[in-house]
């Protein structure tokens, strides 16, 4: 007996000791599958007897198994064990299982036929009837195969009924190997979500051809028309050669006629079929940004971060936490995460320690306003690079709490800048915002003052060879999915049944995803020599009402019918549109088309430092009018909009 056969028999007997769990419809022990196959073979023997007796017009030879029939059954079971035909789950039977059964049955027929011929040659006596043997082979294999198909269909139907989900008729955009793999994976999904009814292709030569018996449809009309003609309700985008422009066009066409759109990953990026199915998801609003993918200079970033001690403030926030994730891929020596929010810091701690166990981390609760605590941390860890992402950023809240905006955004930034200079940090990278350009609110003005201080200190210290720290500022617009941004708000409002609230029908914003923004921060920081304000190409500005309409459609609802959109009026300090540059600012290009350098004259450091000291004193006294007035002195272009501080603009103009 071969080792393989012995192990197979041992596995069967071991599995026979397990308790049969009828509550789990997806589980059948191997021994039970084998017994089921043996019973099927016995049934095939009796069917063979009946067929032979019907053909020869004779009565059935015997209602009992004859010795020769026992030999047939025994040899068949031997090959079941040898080829492990019992090992597969019936509900997941595939072509491989059918092939194993065919091979086992073929070997049974072949061995018995050869044995029969040898036996005749030696004894001149027939051991079997080759005709009956062939009929048995045909009947047994057919029964074994059809029963598996039947069981698979029953399980799939049962799961779909129990799950209560609707099966969506779907077309797949693409006909390459990626599309075929996705279609195959979806066929075996339980419970089934999609019924594939065809493939759309740009290749006219594939017209009239089929995949899995399904038509390949040439894209000679609008996608929505093709979907309607095939009775489909959804489209899966699996053609990864589509550029962003064509992808947007397809999605907009589908959404206009309320067809669902799903995106599929590259199969080469997926570890297994189960993961592949999970990654076939609805198109997200992030997928609809009218911008080409970002290409990074990873070598430059890696050189900048490798074996460095990195200090990140606001590390539990949307931007800070993503910077942590991305930096962790470049083998830093140590990362110190600073944040004043306990629960978010705990959450990022749990995630980072799980996903990047090889990196040395420190998680510290601290406020950037606390100079003594920051200096102690710098003295202990001696960081090489500082990423400053800590800030108060919500415009209406800061309009009502200007002292907090000044203390955190201005004084906190000043503390970090001064300490970084004192402890010879190689690079200080500040994360700023487009709201700092021609600010119309306290938050934007506070960030602009921080920008001014960072830049002025850099050029002030260039006069002395004793200072080496390079100070760099990065500026970008709204980030999709960040805490408090419009997209999570819209999604929450949809979950609550609406309406979606918009402050003004003409309001527009630039958007970027969190990973994109952080990628550009890392690259800008690596290319920066000091004193620059890097601005990012944010793509095309998005009208918020259009964004709301798309999000409603992506959620499967009809705007203004299922979910309403309500105009609530501009909030204090809010602009209709944001700017990355003011009218007088010129830009310089970099080797990355997504990153530009704003040419801004640096302020006189000594004067600015004095003005900021006055501002901070007012903030500590909670003297609202004086502190906002002082902000307008420091940032002359700061003009309040829809705010209680508009009167201060009139006062400054008179003065």
Task: Describe the structure using short key phrases.
Rossmann fold; seven-stranded mixed sheet; alpha/beta; 655 residues
What is the radius of gyration?
35 Å
CATH topology grouping of the largest domain: Rossmann fold
**Physical arrangement of strands within the biggest beta sheet:** 10-9-8-11-12-13-18-22-21
Structural class: alpha/beta
Q: How many structurally independent domains?
A: 3
Q: Largest sheet, if any?
A: 9 strands, mixed
Main CATH class of the largest domain: Alpha Beta
Helices, by number, come to: 22
Low-confidence sequence ranges:
12-26, 268-274
Q: How big a fraction of the residues is strand?
A: 5-15%
What's the β-strand tally? 22
In which range does the helix fraction lie?
40-55%
What is the CATH superfamily classification of the largest domain?
A: NAD(P)-binding Rossmann-like Domain
Please tell me what the overall shape is: elongated
Question: Termini distance?
Answer: 105 Å
